[in-house]
Amino acid sequence: MGTTETGAKGKAGNADAGDTADAVAEAISTAPREEAEGLDGGDDTAASADGPGLGLFGWIRWFWRQLTSMRVALILLFLLSLAAIPGSLIPQESNDPVKVQDFLKNHTTLGPIYTKLGLFHVYSSVWFAAVYLLLFISLAGCIIPRSWQFIGQLRGRPPRAPRKLDRMPAYATWTTDTEPDAVLSVARRLLRKRRYRVEPGVGSVAAEKGYLREAGNLIFHVALFGMLIAFAIATLYKSDGNKVIVQGTGFTNTLTQYDDFKHGAMFDPDAMAPFGFTLNAFHATYAPSGPQKGTPREFAADITYFGGDGKNHNTTIHVNQPLQINGNNVYLTSHGYAPVVTVRDGEGNIAYQGPVPFLPLDGNLTSQGVIKVPDALGKGGTQDQLGFQGFFVPSFVPQSGSMFSQFPALGNPVMMLTAYHGDLGMDAGLPQNVYQLDTTNKKLKQFKNADGSALAQKLAVGDTMTLPDGAGSIHFDRVDQWASFEIVHQPGNELALGSAIAMLAGLAGSLFIQRRRVWVRTTRDAADRTVVELAGLGRSESRCVGEELTVLVGELHAEAPTAADTPDTPDTPDTPDTPDTPDTPDTPDASDAPDTPDEPVEDSPENGSDKERV
Amino acid sequence: MNIAAGVNESFAQLSNYLIYSAMAVYTLAFLAHIAEWLFGSRSKVARTSAALAASAAGAACATPAVKVTQHGGGTALLDRPQVVVRSTSDDRGATDGIGAAGTDEQGELYGRIAISLTVLAFLLHLGGVLFRALSVGRAPWGNMYEFSTAFGVVAVGTYLMLLSLGKKVRWIGLFLVGAVLLDLGLAVTVLYAASDQLVPALHSYWLWIHVSCAMISGAMFLLGALATLLYLWRDRYEIKAAAGRSSGALASMMERLPAASTLDKFAYRANAAIFPLWTFTIIAGSIWAEAAWGHYWQWDPTETWSFITWVVYACYLHARATAGWKGRKAAYISLAGFGCFLFNYFCINIFVVGMHSYAGV
Questions:
Q1: DSSP sequence for A340-352
Q2: Which of A541, A547, A606 has the most B C-beta neighbours within 10 Å, making it the best mutation to test the interface with B?
Q3: A366-396, pLDDT tens digit by residue?
Q4: Where are the domains of chain B?
Q5: What's the pTM?
Q6: ipTM score of the complex?
Q7: How far apart are CA A525 and CA A544, in angstroms?
Q8: HSE-up of A209 (CA within 13 Å, CB side)?
Q9: Which end of chain B is more exposed for a tag (fewer CB within 10 A), N or C?
Q10: HEC assignment per residue over A223-257
Q11: Which of residues 493-522 of A touch B (CB under 8 A)?
């Protein structure tokens, strides 16, 4: 039959030749064989034997075959899982830079070694990339030939019936009075009804089903590439910034507005989407009592935003519900309090008035912050900058004996401040942390009490702290809230999601669909009756071949019943103990099966060989 | 979102009582299983080991044994031809053991008692999880205590479902009940967290999807891992028996277990069937992460370990299809995969700070 050649590159031939079920089972898989290599590294010895004569091309070919072999793919998979481990146990720059700094401070010997090895950014390190890129190359080296092979199979026809059907994993036979051609035509109809691909032959029918298994397998592995590309796009083009916004103020999406900003190598700041928003109000609720007292229950930020259409819209951002606008997502990440103060300088002028965000230190929002007043004038009109540093406590409980907040909501808000004057060091033009006061600066002097101790005062809302020597005052007006937002632009999400869905579908296909073949053959016996033989072949693990064949036999038998006077001997096939030797006369080419010379890729990594494929 | 709505304390209390009752009944079931195994050991069944040694001696030259199985058929068509199924797998011709109780009637009785008790314990256990859910008005897997209890429900529920479908899985009873007892014991002591509402980060319908999938996957991985452990034992026993050597003290137990190839198949089916769901768990988590944290993947420790678990199980599936890796080597890989799952659940959740820090411990 012509299909033998056009089929799966000699696979059909194998099915024909190999009479033992095991040999034929191999033929049902597109997966290339691995045995020789997997077991004793046959390739290695072969390669090293004529190693010197290989030449550059030979070595490349050898390397390529190693890389695309299943064994190396397995090792690379192992390496990938091993390589991912340190990143989960050692702090990572990308997730928690503060912890990395702490680690470096605390481990003076280990720290530099880790830095050299890239262990603080494992997932963008060269060696991690090397592992997964090699894995993907190995994968490509397998998937591409396998896809061609699969296309070949799709274009080919199911291989015709092997000579000895009773050697198949599932087998049934009986004798009937129905004409052979009639039996075969019923068989074809039944098989077509079960959506088999049916190939009629002379005196036999071959049928195959479950091509989606291999398709699913290929789709899954191709989708992995989609995922890789999506990751690459995200890494190259993403931008990610944070912004603290006090209620009543706003933000527009330009680079200078961000408090901090990270972006990929291909990010273009001119292409930033035009939008902005104002924080109208921030709501937080907390567990009022119980063991989890003070744990947050709900965060919500009411905002007014404008996008491309220039119109204003009102909405609320929750923790799990970002604002999606012009390809950007705006996430609510954290929140805190911003005491509103009025600072008067030595001249009695208002030198600063407004909210100052304090950063939370603990779960009950004990917060730390500084107030910098660069425009203050001293008595007599000379410049004398003022700086305040201290804590804000939303729920101060004097009885608790603790300066820390006892609850995150605003119960009894107080501020504890100390004050400085002189030079804040802001005129040097260097960027400064707005949340820190450089108290090591010699030109910055702390205000003292009359007894020489540092000036410090606890302020409730409405209180005023007056600075010594008429240097000015600070008045605690009220408390506003701030919320911090993360604005993320990450292209490639659709590709990632699409790839993920394709992966799932492919995986389901490759794990749950069984590829199987059924053959029906009719012959005439000495009494001129029709002997019907059915055989099924599938993965050895699967009982479904036997069960499916049973149903088929039942249906076919109903239309071609056992001849009335048949002795029921054919029900049981010959003793199975027949040694393998009798096969050889039938099939002189049976030995071809294990290492088919006409099989171009012996060692693609995916899904090894035989009965039980992934 | 019922934020103000607190916790129904009486339901929470009831849930705790139910969980403790379930533990008590599981303990009784465990003891009954032990009695089943003990009584079974005195039964005078034909020793499979002897038969095994004999068949293995002959197996060197013989073709694989043919198992003649009659499928379906029914009584209506007595003359319907039989379908002969030939085993092509590389088993040793060892047959499945007779079961824990052997042929001992008392053992069988205790086995039935054990299963009845398991059903009762399961119902109490399920009730405990349901009342926990009712008491807080949300998915009952918001912290490690809840996850562990619900996890046990899935594991035992799957086992009982397989039993009721007529699958031969009674052999796993003792080991599964033991594992679930361990799980519940850890839950009520180390992991316990009182009934309460969740932090805003968990207010999402993805909690229902992502965490329940993780739980179901974990429960199936547990079944797979138990079967794999038994496979490794039984496999060693079969190798020894085939070599004619005595198989140690547990031989009487080993010979009543299913054949190594059967255990291996069960483990493979559990792991392979659930692998797509585990994949989906990670994907659902990524979608949720995208909505909650702004990035679908940022190598958070829990994410990383779920990925490692995924890769190791992928290794297992590939290894099983590779010559030279099948059998024991692949079994070790799948155990490593389950180890990764456990490490992720216990160690990463409790000791490593990441964005998944909702342990509530």
A1: EEEEE-TTS-EEE
A2: A541
A3: 999 999 998 888 877 788 889 999 999 999 9
A4: 1-51+98-197, 230-361
A5: 0.81
A6: 0.85
A7: 31
A8: 19
A9: C
A10: HHHHHHHHHHHHHHHCEEEEEEEECCCEEECCHHH
A11: 493, 496-497, 500-501, 503-504, 507-508, 511-512
